[in-house]
Amino acid sequence: MVSVTRKKTLSIIALSAMIGLLLLPIVVSIPALASGGGGGSAGGPPPDAVKKDGAEPEKKVEKARDVYYKTEGVVVGAPAPKTTDGPKDYPRYNFESRVLLWFANQQHLYYGSFVLAVPIFCMVIEFMGIVTKDKAMAKKYDQLAYDFIKISLTAYSLTAILGGILIFTFLTLYPAFFGYLSSIFRPVMHIYALTFVAESGTLYIYYYGWDKMKEGLLKWIHLSMSVILNVIGTLLMMLANSWIGFMMSPAGVDEQGRFLGNIWHVIHTALWNPLNVHRILGNMAFGGGVVAAYAAYRFLSAKNDEERAHYDWMGYIAMSLAVAFLIPLPFAGYWLMREVYAYRQQMGITLMGGLLAWLFIIQATMIGILFLSTNYYLWQALGRMSGAERFQKYIKYFVFILVCGFLIFITPHTMVMTPAELKAMGGQQHPVLGNYGVMSAKNGGINVIITTTVLTFIWYQRGNKIPAVSWAKFGNIFMGCFFFMAYVNIIWLAVYGYYIPANVRVGLSVPQVATTLSCLFFMTALNLSMLKGAKEIGPIMWGKISVRSQYAIIMLATAFTWMMGLMGYIRSSVRLFWHVNEIMRDNSPWAYTHTVGFAANMISFNVLFFWVSIMFVFWLGTLGAKKAPVGAKAPVPGGAPAPAVGH
Question: Is 33's pLDDT higher than 60?
Answer without folding.
Answer: no
